[in-house]
Amino acid sequence: MKVEFEELEGLRVRLKVEVDAETFLAKKKKLARAYAPHVSLKGFRPGKAPIEMVMRHIGPSLDGEVREDIIKTTFADALEEHSVRPSMDPELDLGEIGEDGAFTYTAEFEYMPTIDPKDYLGVEIVEPTLPEITDEDVEGGMERMRGAAATWETKEADSVAHENDMAICRLVVRDEESGEVLVEEDDRRLVVGLTDYPVADMGRELLGMKGGEKKTVTGSFSDDPSMGVIQNEEEGDGDAQRKVTVEVEVKEVMQKVLPELDDDFAAKYGGGVTLDEWRTKVREQLAAGREKSLKELREDAVVDAILAKNEIELGQATVDNLAKAAEDAAKARILPSMPKEERDKIDLGLPKEDTEAQARRNLSRQIILQAIADKEGVEVSEEDMDAKLSEMADELGMPLPKLKAGLAGEEGDRLKTRIRLEKTLDMLVRYAVTKAEDEAEADKADKADDPEPTPEATGDQKPEEKEPETSEETQP
Fold first, then answer.
1. Per-10-residue mean pLDDT for the chain, 476 residues long?
2. Statement: the pTM of the whole predicted model exceeds 0.70
3. CA gyration radius for the chain?
4. Cα separation, 413 vs 407, whole angstroms
5. By residue range, what is the domain housing residue 185?
6. Looking at the structure, do residues 177 and 208 belong to the same domain, yes or no?
7. Has residue 442 been placed in a domain?
C-alpha cells in the first residue's frame, strides 16, 4: 500500500492512497472471519465454512465495507502521522477499482493550523463599561413583563386600527405578473403599523382601517420580516424579489389590554411577592445581566488583544462553511417548523463580509484558546465537571442525574472541551492588566509625545567619518 501526503496552498492537503490487491484481500478475509459465525451455509456449522465460501455468500456488499474500512483507517493513520486535524469534511474521490480489489482514492481537505501561542499572559485591555441600572431600567423591565401578560380584546365595530392594535385579516397574495396565488390565509394576525408581512410597510397600510374593509397593496413578497425576502427562483438573480399584489380584508380589530401593575400582578407573575419586592427582584436580575455582559466584554477584549499578537491563518473554505452553518442555525432558530428546503430560500440580508468576519473570529478564538490550554497544561477535573453540570441543571430545571445520563459519549467530551476553554479564558482574564479608558488614552498620548530616541541616547551613533589620511608620497 502506498500513501502520499501533499501540502497544497491555503492550509489545504491532498492525501492519495493506493491499496494493492494483497492488502485488500487480507482485510476482506479478516472481516469475513468476523461475520462467519453469523453466516449459515448448508453442510457447515456456523463459523466452520471455508472463508472463500463465506466471502462469496456475503457478496459485493463485503467489498464495499472493506473499502470503507480501509479508507477510514488509512485516513486516520495519515492524520496522526502528519499531526493534521481537518477543519472540514474531506472531498473524497474514489478511483478505478480493479477486479482483484485493488483501488486508489484521494482526499483533499483544509486543516486547522497549529500555533505556538506567545505574549498571552498580562495583556493590556481597556476596562469595559456599561451604564448602571436605573429606576427607568427597572420600570421598563416590569413593563415588558406586563406587556407579555396582556390580553387582546375586540374593539367596537366602528373603531379604526391604531398602531400596536392587532388586525385579524384574510390575505390573498398573488404574483403580480402571472396572477398565481402564492399565499391564501384566513384569520392571519397582523400588528398594525409595524408588520412587514406579506410586503414591506403592510402594517402602515392597515392604519385607520375598520372591520369589514378591504384593500389591495402591491410590493415585494416578504415571507417573514425577520428573515428578509423569498428570492425569485425563475429569474436566477440572488437579489431579485418577487413582486406581488396583496388583497387584504380586515375581519376585526383587537386592542391590547394591560393588567394593572399591583400586588396581585406581582404575586401572580413574580413568584408570590409584593410589588416592591418584585421591583427589587427585577433590579437584581438586571444587575446580574449587566455583570454577565461586562464579563463577556472583558473576555472578548482579552482574546482580541491576544489574537493581535498571534496571527492565525485560516482556510477560506473552512471560514465559508462556518459562516453558512451559523446562518443556517439562525434560520432554524427563527423558523423551526419550516422545512429546510424552504429555509434555504430565505435571505437574511446579512453582508457576506460580516458573516465571514464573525466566523473567522470565532474559529481564531477557539484555536488560540486550545493552543494556550495545551501549552499551560489546563486540565478538567471531576469537580469541574460536577460543578458545571450542577449549574446547568439549575438553569434548565432538570434533575442532575438525568442531565448526567444525557451527556455521555461525544456530548460529554464536548462539555469537557467547553469547560477547559472556559478555565483557560478565566486564567487569561485574571492575568490581564485592565486600565480605565482615560488612563489608556493618556498612555497613548504619552507614547505619541515621546520623541524618537536619538543615536546619542541609545549609544548607536556612527563614528565620525574622517577624511582619508594621505602621505606626501601619495599626493599628486
1. 90 94 94 91 87 91 94 93 92 93 95 94 95 95 90 93 96 93 93 93 95 94 52 41 91 94 89 90 95 96 96 93 90 83 79 90 95 96 92 89 83 92 97 85 67 50 41 34
2. yes
3. 34
4. 8
5. 151-257
6. yes
7. no
